[in-house]
Amino acid sequence: MRLTRAELEAHRGEGVPDVLSEGLKLLFIGINPGLRSAAVGAAFAHRSNRFFAALALAGITDHVIDTSSGFRQADLDHLAERGIGITALVGYATAKASELSDQQLVAGRKVLESKIDAARPRIAAMLGVGAYRTAFAVPKATFGPQDAFVGESRLWVLPSPSGLNAHFTLAELAAAYREAAIAAGIEPYPSPTDRAMTASDANDRARRIGVRRGSMSEGSA
């Protein structure tokens, strides 16, 4: 589905439906929807976003889900069967996450915590360390499990899958996501990422490249 810039801009400020189901184990939290996601009504719809490719490479899903024209019901069913949910820190669309202010990220946290309380996943994983640091007022937060909970749900920080985040390869994203999935009680399908980077390795890499506080190169979902 091709959309012009004007058609995409018409969806600025719109939301995208959450992907939530009973028995949720792992809730992925994007920063906010991109314009294409708002246009088609599905998260991570921009073809440059590596989220669903990382899930498949990690063995979290058994195929690469394509949301560029919206979700197929079969894919929503597959995510539900696997105990996977998707939401966003900020619920309305922008072209880039860098357009969001710190105040908007902090305000999004309050709504997000209500969603986590209701969904009760084992792990709620923020896709982007910069956004997590700002929203949760933890300026020194690093990748991996956090010493923080929302209700019974443990918070976790993962690298952003945005195509604008050049600091992490697809294999590195997949390894970090796989680690969170296993901790959430999801048994991965066989995957070549067993030997790839873990969240602790991601922290070492982040320190080497110097992840900035805002980290708004993370992009929108």
TrEMBL record:
<feature type="domain" description="Uracil-DNA glycosylase-like">
    <location>
        <begin position="17"/>
        <end position="181"/>
    </location>
</feature>
<dbReference type="GO" id="GO:0004844">
    <property type="term" value="F:uracil DNA N-glycosylase activity"/>
</dbReference>
<dbReference type="InterPro" id="IPR015637">
    <property type="entry name" value="MUG/TDG"/>
</dbReference>
<dbReference type="GO" id="GO:0006285">
    <property type="term" value="P:base-excision repair, AP site formation"/>
</dbReference>
<keyword id="KW-0227">DNA damage</keyword>
<keyword id="KW-0234">DNA repair</keyword>
<dbReference type="InterPro" id="IPR036895">
    <property type="entry name" value="Uracil-DNA_glycosylase-like_sf"/>
</dbReference>
<keyword id="KW-0378">Hydrolase</keyword>
<dbReference type="InterPro" id="IPR005122">
    <property type="entry name" value="Uracil-DNA_glycosylase-like"/>
</dbReference>
<dbReference type="Pfam" id="PF03167">
    <property type="entry name" value="UDG"/>
</dbReference>
<feature type="region of interest" description="Disordered">
    <location>
        <begin position="193"/>
        <end position="221"/>
    </location>
</feature>
<dbReference type="GO" id="GO:0008263">
    <property type="term" value="F:pyrimidine-specific mismatch base pair DNA N-glycosylase activity"/>
</dbReference>
<protein>
    <submittedName>
        <fullName>Mismatch-specific DNA-glycosylase</fullName>
    </submittedName>
</protein>
